[in-house]
Amino acid sequence: MNDINAWVWWLVAAAGLGIPLVVTAMPEFGMLAVGAVAAAVSAGLGAGVVLQVLVFAVVSVALIAVVRPVAARHRAQRPQLATGVEALKGKQAIVLERVDGSGGGRIKLGGEIWSARALDAGQAYEVGQEVDVVDIDGATAIVM
């Protein structure tokens, strides 16, 4: 075992840290693996054991301290481009058939004809009026 260089052991450690990264999908293991690779590079350049461990610790902690908050911010952000039903909310539509709270009306929304009902059951919209889509319930647009 003394014949194997220290940088090989660091690469083995990096591979060992890569396994739980894949199995658990915890990115912290990947950051520790990168720290082990940095320590392997320092060992390959002839650094002593203390410096190798220091490089491992500094690189690993720096990655965790910098990358985790950035990743958390990105995970918390809503998508910038709304697609599907979410893209229709807030759009304006034209009433083609009288729309009221019962849901028997029709609107033209985004070039398509949709069934629609009024958000307020007591409200009715006549043909030709512009309405705002506030929600989509199945295949029915909820308008006001």
UniProtKB/TrEMBL annotation:
It comes from the Bacteria. The keyword Transport does not apply. The keyword DNA repair does not apply. Keywords: Membrane, Transmembrane, Transmembrane helix. GO terms for cellular component: plasma membrane. The chain crosses the membrane at residues 6-23, 53-71. Pfam families: NfeD. It is a multi-pass membrane protein. Residues 85-143 form the NfeD-like C-terminal domain. It is found in: Membrane. InterPro entries: Membrane_assoc_protease, NA-bd_OB-fold, NfeD-like_C. PANTHER family: INNER MEMBRANE PROTEIN YBBJ. This is Membrane protein. It comes from Streptomyces albiflavescens.
